[in-house]
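Ticket #4471: structure export looks truncated?
Reporter: QA, pipeline team
Priority: medium

Steps to reproduce: submit the single chain below to the structure queue and open the exported record.
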Amino acid sequence: MIHRFLLLLLMFLPFFSGAAETEQYVLDDGDRISIKVYGEEDLSMDILLSTRGRFDYPYLGRLEAAGKSVGQLQRIIEQGLRGDYLIDPKVTVNVIQFRKFYVNGEVNQPGGYDYQPGLTIGKAIAIAGGFTDRASRKKIQKTEAKNGRTQKNVGLSQTVGPGDIIVVDQSFF
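Actual output as written to the record:
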């Protein structure tokens, strides 16, 4: 019986860790989020964050989501609605569509792709169709969206963030 419980726990562990990772995800322009308020259809909506990471929300006016985690935004909405509008609001905020990351250079399908929590350089290249025959497996650079810093010769296990740009150089041998 204990073995079955441990097996079930191990099967569902990735889902729980993914939820925690998404709650810590920092929002910015280009993210599409879903706000649900239990029992209040008029306050539940899907929103594409504007170019400044802001949106208008009923009763609360313009809210700044950029730079806040999903959990922080959820608490801001709950606190804003509590008291004057609702006694005990139950709010959930989820990311429906993450902003894009970009893969260029010697990959089969260069372009922008929706970010996924836990993404690595290797997974990003696989999403972009894999390496071309001329691709260098070692000359890969990553430009981070959050600070504009470019790293050269990054490994395939390095993490990728939303908005990051990955460039796979050509191999000469």
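Status: closed, not a bug. The export was complete when the record was re-opened. Leaving a note from the reviewer for reference: Residues 2-18 have pLDDT under 50 and may be disordered.
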